[in-house]
Amino acid sequence: MTTLKIDVWSDVACPWCYIGKRRFSSALDRIAERDGSAPEVEIEYHSFELSPDTPVDFEGTATEFLADHKGIPLETARQMQDQVTQLAAAEGLTYRMDQVRHTKTLKAHELLHLAKAFGKQPEMKERLLRAYFTEGRHVGRVEDLADLAAEVGLEREAVVVALEAGTFAEAVADDVARARAFGINGVPFFVLDGKYGVSGAQDPDVFVQVLDRVLAERAASHTGEASRRD
Questions:
Q1: Nearest 5°: CA angle at 95, between 91 and 97?
Q2: What is the rounded CA–CA span in Å between residue 104 and residue 66?
Q3: Are 157 and 176 in contact (CB under 8 A)?
Q4: pLDDT by residue (tens digit) across 89-104?
Q5: From residue 178, how far is each of 48, 99, 184 by CA, in Å?
Q6: Cis omega (within 30 of 0) on the bond before 52?
């Protein structure tokens, strides 16, 4: 059976996107444990900016940004972050929200497109998320992003040149336009096999159910094609 394509719209500054990434991996692990092997998947990440008007060098904490962005008291924003931190911990992730350096993520998305061109997008996505939520690294400035890119094996100076030139800005805009066309207004959003959409960081069991349905339909289609050839 051919590789199953998974398209994921997400943002580097989205705490639920990191959790959703882990939960989808857990779903694949559950299928492997149940069936002896997991389906072969190709995951492609697509750009989505949750707060495109954010300045690169935002002055303030991530908690202050959240409170202002949602129009809620600072303490309520802090409680929301504490809750998502606990949920992340259940997935083996360490969120240090007090150290997060909130920023505009456009250049990070451009970097992910560059990484895709060199077959490094999965590694780059993971590195950016960990840098932002766990390490308190800046993921909005070109030089900082180039440092992170070098860590996953990309040529640092080539990254600087591409990001400063905006080489992949159009690719980011195309992703955003596709999200709008699909009616996606929040992330993470998963599209399985180009047909089934799953919104949010769902429980792994939900992903298992959708994957099972997609795989069953593929198997039925394959069987039908084989019968017609006979």
A1: 150
A2: 14
A3: no
A4: 999 999 999 999 999 9
A5: 10, 33, 9
A6: no
Q: Name the H helices within 91-192.
A: 106-117, 121-133, 142-151, 156-165, 169-182
The pLDDT tens digits for 52-81 are 999 999 999 999 999 999 999 999 999 999
CA distances from 98 to 71, 136, 156 (A): 19, 9, 29
10 has which bridge partners?
Answer: 47
Residue 136 has pLDDT above 90, yes or no: yes
User: Are residues 120 and 152 in contact, defined by beta-carbon separation less than 8 angstroms?
Assistant: yes
CB contact at 8 A, 120 and 160: no
Can you tell me the distance from the alpha carbon of 131 to that of 139, in angstroms, rounded to the nearest whole number?
Answer: 8
| Largest CA-CA distance found in the chain, in angstroms, rounded | 68
Q: Which residue do the tokens 């990309």 mark?
A: 154
